[in-house]
Amino acid sequence: MVFVMNEKHQLETVLDEVREFSPSKEFRAKATISSFDDYRGMYEESIKNPDAFWSKIAEELHWFKKWDKTSNGDDKPVFKWFENGRTNISYNCVDRHLESSFRNKAAIVWEGEPGDHRILTYWDLSREVNKFANVLKKLGVEHGDRVIIYLPMIPDLAISMLACARIGAVHSVIFAGFSSESIKDRVLDCQAKLVITADGSWRRGNVLQLKSIVDKAIQNCDCVKDVIVIQRKPGSSFPCQIQAGRDHWYHRLVDGVSMNCPAEELDSEDMLFLLYTSGTTGKPKGVVHTTGGYMVYTYATAKYVFDLKPEDMFWCTADIGWITGHSYFVYGPLLNGATCLMYEGAPDWPDRGRVWDLIERYGATILYTAPTLIRAFMKWGNEWPAKYDLSTLRLLGTVGEPINPEAWMWYHETIGEGKCPIVDTWWQTETGGIMITPLPGCTVTKPGSATLPFFGIDADVLNEDGQSSQAGILAIKKPWPGMLRGIYGDPQRFKESYWSKWPDIYFPGDGAKKDANGYFWILGRIDDVVNVSGHRIGTAELESVFVEHEAIAESAVIGVEHEIKGQGLVAFVTAKDGYEVSNDLEIELKDWVTEKIGKFAVPERIIFSADLPKTRSGKIMRRLLRDIADGKALGNVATLADAGVLDALKAKYEED
Ligand code: PRX
Prior knowledge:
Blueprint: H1 7-16, H2 25-30, H3 36-48, H4 50-58, E1 69-72, E2 80-83, E3 86-87, H5 89-98, E4 106-111, E5 117-121, H6 122-138, E6 146-150, H7 155-167, E7 170-173, H8 180-190, E8 194-198, E9 201-203, E10 206-208, H9 210-218, E11 226-230, E12 247-249, H10 250-253, E13 266-267, E14 271-277, E15 285-290, H11 291-305, E16 313-316, H12 323-335, E17 339-343, H13 354-362, E18 366-369, H14 371-380, H15 383-386, E19 395-399, H16 405-415, E20 422-425, E21 459-462, E22 471-476, E23 486-487, H17 491-498, E24 510-514, E25 520-525, E26 529-532, E27 535-538, H18 539-548, E28 552-562, E29 566-575, H19 583-596, E30 605-608, H20 622-629, H21 644-655
Parallel strand pairs: 4-17, 6-7, 6-8, 8-11, 11-12, 16-17, 16-18, 18-19, 19-20, 29-30
Antiparallel strand pairs: 1-2, 3-13, 4-5, 9-10, 14-15, 15-23, 21-22, 22-24, 24-25, 26-27, 28-29
This protein binds adenosine-5'-monophosphate-propyl ester.
């Protein structure tokens, strides 16, 4: 087995960790689940009788027509949930609350990077979602049509998603850090009919020209009939081109539109969204989530994992362009009637106190963020959080990558002042929602462990043969409502990626270890996916970008440990004959990656080499490149075609 993470180091850390933390009496007193026996009881019930368990939770939500069968695996590996049920997630996120005391409660509390702000109550959200849905209809968007959303973190992002969901259109949100090329690939893959974007967005005091990125992306995409452009700053536009007939300012389209658009009664298995993520091949995959199961699962996980209370101010810092933002900024919290804090810009703008300043001013009670940001905060120094009153915080969460115990302890002591439980939540784009996690009112936590499975999740650690073992590969042995239903347009890849390792068992691609208490310790990806700052990047995807460049003949990309990002990327490249290897070429290649994927995918280091280590059959030996990067002694190189290549590379790697 190949652990891309530094396996040995991780295992040692895990084996050494003996600290344990119990939820405080105060937290427990108000928690939805405050006794571990209750968790155990509910968990056992959920595994023994999943249909009854999930039915009961689903009944807390609104259904136009009740389902006939809770789960159906006739068509494995595709499972159906709440079969023949009719519902609408937008209705459940918005309309359901209008009949309750939440009607005038804040749903989204937003602050832009320059400090502008907006608060939308559930009533306001309903009005905006209804109007947006009517605008989509006006442009001819219908049930099943794919809509690309390329927006910054502004309320319109959540509104447009809910508007699509309201009429049964499939949204595919693209993180606003992706390049034109990446947008183009996604637009073409899903044959999107419409793109929603903004004229710009603020990032570290600069304006990001989103509309021009979209213009470049779709110039040859005939499937796109219309582009909706939202003014980032109402009343004044950033300069951008509006192509007559295709592009429309949203504020003009919405003028005079009715604020009443009844939610479509959708089938449980109607597609809700596509979200592209990296895999082990060169092409990102469109992960398919459907309506009913995803709704019930995000509702339940948000309710229990974040122990949501009506008075909470919940801040999930993830961009909505990633799954975390889908499930725990938009759907999970809104299904629960929560108040969500939303922030547009960079965490260190105008200074490194911005996050703490936001928590103090808005009285955030729950902070859900990524280890990479926690490590950056640690580096920036305790003086920043110390300037602010963080006493409103009652619960902390992390997601996206393994958290090292040191960062966990810092989060616990410096931010949580020792009183806030930490929920380290393991899950994936594909799982739809949180899978392995503490429940904050009852689970004893251990720094670095995601602890125990959520209700209905039959998780285990298996060896290659599918036998339960202490260290090995994480596996999910039973279906769950939030599971992906497929990869858009590629059923074969769906089967091969997730269901071919062991029969009828979901293979997530992570290495893991289980301790004597049955706690899970996630060790990182075991496939060719690198987790950079919690963002998944396929090494094959990056390699194909390099060889598309005219100067590059070959490339091999690996993940290496990184102090802040968790993992960083190192690319080994071979230039074609006639091209000079220079600093300029390195800069050009970095720009090339930015252009092809986005800045976040640019490797830390690009190492030029006259050759790459290969087997006699011509396969690049990435394991040896990893050994070089880890500073390990180079082991068995007998299968190498030319052993001299390695020494030269090693010397080069260590040179700078
Ligand atoms: O390797 C695991 C890591 O992130 C991967 C999923 O990435 P993505 O689909 O982008 O979703 C990220 C947000 C849910 C997983 O395969 N991962 C996620 N959460 C954790 C984690 N690794 C360790 N601990 C976690 N809490």
